[in-house]
Amino acid sequence: MKYFGNLLTVLTIATLSGLVSAQIKPLDAMLSNYKYPYEVHFLNLKSQDNDLKMAYMDVHPQKPNGKTVMLLHGKNFNGAYWERTAKDLAAKGFRVVIPDQIGFGKSSKPRDYQFSFSQLADNTKAILDELKIDKTIVLGHSMGGMVAARFTLLYPEKVQKLILENPIGLEDYKTFAAYQTIDQAYQSELKNTAETYKNYQLKFYYDNQWKAEYQPWLDLIAGWTLHKDYPQVAWDAALTSDMIYNQPVCYEFKNIKTPTLLIIGTRDRTAIGKDRASKELQPKMGQYQELGKKTQREIAGSKLVEIENVGHLPHIEVYSRFFDAVYDFIQ
Predict the structure, then answer these.
(1) Does residue 6 form part of some domain?
(2) Alpha-carbon span 136 to 122, nearest angstrom
(3) Angle in degrees, 0-180, between the axes of helices 143-154 and 117-130, rounded to the nearest 10
(4) What is the spatial distance between Cα 184 and Cα 6, in angstroms, rounded to a whole number?
(5) Domain total for the chain?
(6) For residue 24, is it within any domain?
(7) Is-contact 256 148, C-beta < 8 A?
(8) Cα angle, residue 121 at apex, residues 141 and 144 outer, rounded to 5°
């Protein structure tokens, strides 16, 4: 009877996993059949001998206050998850620009591309140049925080204020985790499913507490795994993982002179390569309740807003507290 009970449990889990996958729609590399919350524009970009298209949304307020906010997405996300933030910022008079970085969202997925934070920052600047925006407030989440930091270091004259929401890269992952080749990273990416993505997010983002508002952002990346284009997406994901691992920004925080706000959900435990670190080092990685304070000390004059018992996505998990902190800083 015990055998049949265990078998029933396994079959039930498998059935539920199948139902989860069945509810997710396959998505091609450019998310062609996925509608973003605002009109999508494309910048034709010649970069590294590639003809690329970089997607972005440009949200105009009814009563402009003369300021622009640029929202930069994380690695497992795209510009769509900024919908509510953009709506409320526009209601306050801000113009809002939301790029999809090359390799992400609705932007091109080149195979032969040297991904670097400097290159992504330069691509992002090209959108501002196209829109003739001289200065902007920059808000970056997760990997977008690393892009935002590099953008601010490269183009300080363009950044009025910098906001980092649970950015990764607050520590140097190379000092904890063993290196993996791009080929190894690619093979790992190819194994991703809706279940593996959800389990990762539950463990590192949400502390095993899943809510309905998290599902749309899981569906987007999980939908890729069900489409024949997924190897193309997975290759760029491997390249950008390598970029994050090999190009830390934490040593240069001391060079940021722009007024800066850190919004840190202290329950977050996100850390690149944690599974490749020793058992002794793993618990020391991604300790955001410590990393936020450390980073505030390194960025002169910066402000820290810690949100207790919140994980990697304050703007999804506790939106009102996140937005209040942002607006208080930029109004």
Answers:
(1) no
(2) 15
(3) 70
(4) 34
(5) 1
(6) no
(7) no
(8) 10
Question: From CA 227, how far away is CA 103, in angstroms rounded?
Answer: 16
- Distance, in Å, from the CA atom of 165 to the CA atom of 140, rounded to the nearest integer, reads 6
Sign of CA dihedral 124, 125, 129, 134: positive
Q: Are strands 303-307 and 136-141 parallel, antiparallel or unpaired?
A: unpaired
Domain with 108, as residue range(s), is 33-330
pTM of the model: 0.93
Q: How long, in residues, is the chain?
A: 331
Minimum mean pLDDT range among 2-11, 64-73, 222-231? 2-11
SS (H, E, C) 109-161: CCCCCCCCHHHHHHHHHHHHHHCCCCCEEEEEECHHHHHHHHHHHHCHHHEEE
pLDDT tens digits for range 172-204: 999 999 999 999 999 999 999 999 999 999 988
Tokens of residue 78, six digits: 């795209």
At 259-274, the pLDDT tens digits run 999 999 999 999 999 9
Residue 235 lies in a domain: yes
User: What is the CB neighbour count within 10 angstroms for residue 65?
Assistant: 11
Q: Which amino acid is at 186?
A: Y
46 neighbors 59 (Cβ within 8 angstroms): no
Check residue 124 and give left, alpha or beta (phi > 0: left; psi -120 to 50: alpha).
Answer: alpha
Tell me the backbone φ, ψ of residue 271, rounded to 5 degrees: -155, 125
137 pairs with which residues across the strands?
69, 161
